[in-house]
Amino acid sequence: MEGAEVMPNGITFIAILSACSHIGFVKAGRCFFDKMRTKYSITPKIEHYGCMVDLLGRAGYLCEAFQLISEMPFIANGAIWGALLSAARIHVDVKLGELALQHLTEVEPHNSGNYILLSNIYASLGRWDDVRNIRKLMRDKGVKKAPGGSYVEVGNSVHEFVAGDNSHLHAERIYEIASEIDLQLRMAVGK
User: Fold this and answer.
1) Long-range contacts made by residues 44-48, C-beta under 8 angstroms, separation at least 24?
2) 106 alpha carbon, distance to own chain's centre
3) Exposed e or buried b for every residue in 65-91, given b needs 16+ CB within 10 A?
4) In angstroms, what CA-CA distances link 169 with 45, 81, 160, 161, 180?
5) pTM
6) For the residues of 97-150, what is the DSSP string, one character each?
7) What are 2-61's pLDDT values in tens digits?
């Protein structure tokens, strides 16, 4: 892009920082984040900071990610705290996970995924009392986990399936076939 003398904009840098995050290029991400300000006079927006928190967090630079949140000129939103919580899950950092959830319950109090991430951190450490406490907290606050679902296209018709929902016109037959497949798979692997 620079070789073609095309001027990047804020969206360009979101794409670049996101790419750096997903491939683990921390040094390059830091360089681009700095360059957008110094070379291109683009003031980073909260989305750019979110990309940087994600980049640093995924790479294990949790303290630096938290420091960036503390120093950014914005109030952190759910995406920022969510990126930090996800990083805490990846790197099993209970204290940071708890801190992130504390902030997330203020900005996204009914997002069940946030509670589940912290619960998963506890579970990975065998802290089953804490797992139960998170589930109880969710119940007490009326936070419900969204059921899983999928879509299947048959012919020119799309069918939606949601966990625990038996309202499909052919639900009985579908469950019979699913049970047969399950049985055959279990027999194939010897269970």
Assistant:
1) 44/13, 45/10, 46/72, 46/74, 46/77, 46/79, 46/80, 47/10, 47/14, 47/79, 48/10, 48/13, 48/14, 48/17
2) 18
3) bbebbeebeeebbbbbbbbbbbbbbeb
4) 48, 42, 11, 11, 19
5) 0.76
6) HHHHHHHHHHH-TT-HHHHHHHHHHHHHTT-HHHHHHHHHHHHHHT--PPPPEE
7) 666 778 999 999 999 999 999 999 999 999 999 999 999 999 999 999 999 999 999 999
Backbone angles phi, psi at 157, to 5 degrees: -120, 135
What is the token pair recorded at 73?
């000129």
Buried/exposed 96-113: b ≥16 CB within 10 Å, e otherwise: bbebbbebbbebbeebee
**Mutual orientation of helices 46-58 and 62-71 as an angle, nearest 10°?**
160
- Nearest alpha-carbon partner for 117 in 149, 139, 51, 99: 99
